[in-house]
Amino acid sequence: MKLLSPLRFLSSALLLLVIGLTTLEARVKATTKRRVAPAGFSTDVHQVYANGRGRDSARWPVPQPLFAPDLSNADFTPGAWAVDAEGVLAPTRDPQARSLGDIWTQTSYGDFALNVEFRTRDLGANSGVFLRSDDPVNWLHHSIEVQIFQGDSSPVHATGAIFDVAAPRRILPLIPGEWNRYTIIARKNLITVILNGEEVNKIDLDEWTQAGMNPDGTKNKFAKAYKDMARIGRIGLQDHGGSRVEFRNLFVESL
């Protein structure tokens, strides 16, 4: 067997080292690319809504799109919703036509952080984000709804409210045509609503111990105590009918 000269051996070793470093750099870049966070999220495990996730950062999950671009992982009436070329998800009906139904994930979620950007098209627009529904057909009594409403309304029906049970700390006006962002965090019995970077609502489900009644003695329309709402279920977007509400940059992160 012919031995390599020291110079040729050194050259070969250097070549292998360069190849190895190039491969490693490519892998790092690929990993970094996979971990680019969408709007509203961060790859920093110390981010405020991570709730100590940094203690177990090796298992930190990457946010995933809530719906596929072709809506193949969603449940809805065929033709009722569509994603346009700019990635905006919206009902397909005429602006003042009757709703053709809501859209739901096929996957169920328990503890999660949800990023939703939305805009109203006109005054009076009405929609909502449904959480942990265990019965999308009868969603009213089987979902937690974070309200979206453009216009005057009762505080427990205003944007940022947990529908009919908890008013937001501050009602932030929605301007038709302008995008807004919800970050909604569901962790066990706690539901937190952040609107445009400001925490506007946080409730402990366990405080709602009576059907049809809020902790402050006011009535709500739910047939069971809110503490008994499912702790795992599907996420949905409401088409209430009338003026449309549009959505984009929908990402969910299991916690």
The percentage of residues in β strands lies in: 25-35%
Supply the number of structural domains: 1
Radius of gyration over all CA atoms, rounded: 24 Å
**What is the averaged pLDDT score?**
81
- The CATH superfamily name is Exo-inulinase, domain 1
The proportion of residues forming helix, as a percent range, comes to 10-25%
- What CATH calls the topology is Jelly Rolls
SSE string, helices as H and strands as E: HEEEEEEEEEEEEE
Counted beta strands: 13
Distance, first to last CA: 59 Å
Largest sheet: 6 strands, antiparallel
Form type = globular
CATH architecture: Sandwich
* Strands ordered across the widest β-sheet: 1-13-6-9-10-11
So how many helices?
1
Q: Please write the CATH class name.
A: Mainly Beta
Class per helix and strand makeup: mainly beta
Describe the structure.
It is built from one helix and 13 strands, in the order H-E-E-E-E-E-E-E-E-E-E-E-E-E. 11% of the residues lie in helices and 30% in strands. It has one helix at 6-34; strands at residues 64-65, 74-75, 81-83, 89-91, 103-109, 112-120, 126-133, 144-149, 180-187, 190-195, 198-204, 233-237, 245-254. It has a single domain (58-254), classed as Exo-inulinase, domain 1 (Jelly Rolls), CATH 2.60.120.560. By secondary structure, the chain is mainly beta. The longest helix is centred in the first third of the chain and has 29 residues, at 6-34.
Short recap of the structure:
With 255 residues, this protein is mostly beta strands.
Task: Lay out the secondary structure.
Elements: H1 6-34, E1 64-65, E2 74-75, E3 81-83, E4 89-91, E5 103-109, E6 112-120, E7 126-133, E8 144-149, E9 180-187, E10 190-195, E11 198-204, E12 233-237, E13 245-254
Antiparallel strand pairs: 1-13, 2-5, 3-4, 5-12, 6-9, 6-13, 7-8, 7-12, 9-10, 10-11
